[in-house]
Amino acid sequence: MFDPPKTAAPERSLIIGIALICLGAICMVGLDASARMLLETYSLPQLVVLRCLFSISLIVAFTAARSELAARFIRQLFLLQRPLHVVLAVVESHCRNQDRRSP
């Protein structure tokens, strides 16, 4: 006859789910607190660019462990490091010009 697949105990799955939700909430609080702290020294466009670059680097790091294609992408991303510095410099100069214009 048909035997259902054996899975982890429902209690254990429930505890893991609750722990993951708590971890996600703690990460959201940390992200909000760090954003408020960084906005005191950096402008909003700079912070958005930095958060995007950080997120992309995390995604690439997690996928790099799983495939050779992602590892090739990482090597190419390091080749793009210089243009990314240029983009950040342009955003920073734009923000400084905006600060000078505002009264």
Describe this structure in words.
With 103 residues, the protein is an all-alpha fold. The protein has two domains: 10-41; 43-103, no CATH class. 81% of the residues lie in helices and 0% in strands. It has four helices and no strands. The chain has helices at residues 10-38, 44-64, 68-79, 81-101. α2 packs antiparallel against α3 (68-79). The protein is flat.
Topology:
Blueprint: H1 10-38, H2 44-64, H3 68-79, H4 81-101
Helix pairs in contact: 2-3
Write a concise keyword list for the protein shown above.
single chain, 103 residues, mainly alpha, 2 domains
- Structural class determined from secondary elements: mainly alpha
Query: Care to count the β-strands?
Result: 0
Q: Please give the alpha-carbon distance between the first and last residues.
A: 79 Å
Order of secondary-structure elements = HHHH
Number of helices: 4
* Strand-residue proportion: under 5%
Low-confidence regions = none
The coarse overall form would be flat
Helix proportion: over 70%
Radius of gyration from CA coordinates: 21 Å
* Oligomer class: single chain
Quickly count the domains: 2
Largest sheet: none
Mean pLDDT value: 76
Quick take:
By secondary structure, the protein is mainly α.
